[in-house]
Amino acid sequence: MDRFFESKPVVYMSKFFDMVLLNVIFVISCIPIVTIGAACTALYYTCVKVIRRDRSKLWKEYKQSFVDNFKTSIGIWIPLVLTETALAVVTYRLLSQGHTSMSAAMIGICMAFFLFILAIMIYSFAVLSRFTVSAKEAIRNATVISIHHGGETIYMLVMTLGLATMFVVGWKFIPLILLIMPSVYTLLISYFMERVLIQYTPEEEQNASDEDEAASEDMLYTEEHKEKPWYLEGGDKDE
Predict the structure, then answer these.
(1) Residue 181, exposed/middle/buried by CB under 10 A (0-12, 13-18, 19+)?
(2) Residue 7 pLDDT
(3) pLDDT-derived band of residue 236, with 50, 70 and 90 as boundaries?
(4) What is d(CA 184, CA 30) in angstroms, rounded to the nearest whole number?
(5) What's the CA gap between 91 and 131, in Å, rounded?
(6) Of 127, 142, 116, which Cα lies nearest the Cα of 108?
(7) Whether pLDDT at 46 is above 90
(8) What dihedral do alpha carbons 159, 163, 168, 174 form, nearest 10°?
(9) Which site among 138, 180, 185, 220 is 20 to 30 Å from 165 CA-CA?
């Protein structure tokens, strides 16, 4: 009987049902709108730790990450989503006014900034899920990382835009898409994101004296609880 439950088909089916359950929890968590940032942070954290690394329980880790990062995630989500909304409105108005050389240039600039802020948003919630940082530090670190790791950033933006296109084209199937895609998208994102974050994750906690000597604005703070270093698995710091 043990061999049956450890067989690959059973394991894969269990993973699939876990991902569907995670999607349901995520969608419900997003309903108040203001909680979307905390939900995205918890979704990434749970996908990597539970789905990929088989550590702990799904609901336990999602709830813990959601609660721990709730306030900080609001400080990330609100300013970034307002910026994205403003850029989208300006771009729409420029498009509706007709095409001139000036408007075309402005549209290009707005779209470039829109994608850049989107990249910062993607990195910010992943950084928040991994490190103990303030909202300002998360955004700053995400900005630096997104520029420094341009290749990974482009891959993740392409996947994000692909998901957005799926929602627009398949709007009739949005309930089905929401039931399947959030955790699948996050899981795919994590394969690029983890290769980046592993480079900023120390293998051992520093001593308190070392931490005092380090400048707070120049480092990422690791989580206080590190009983099992699941976040050090499956990555290569030399990549």
Answers:
(1) middle
(2) 65
(3) low
(4) 17
(5) 34
(6) 116
(7) yes
(8) 170
(9) 138
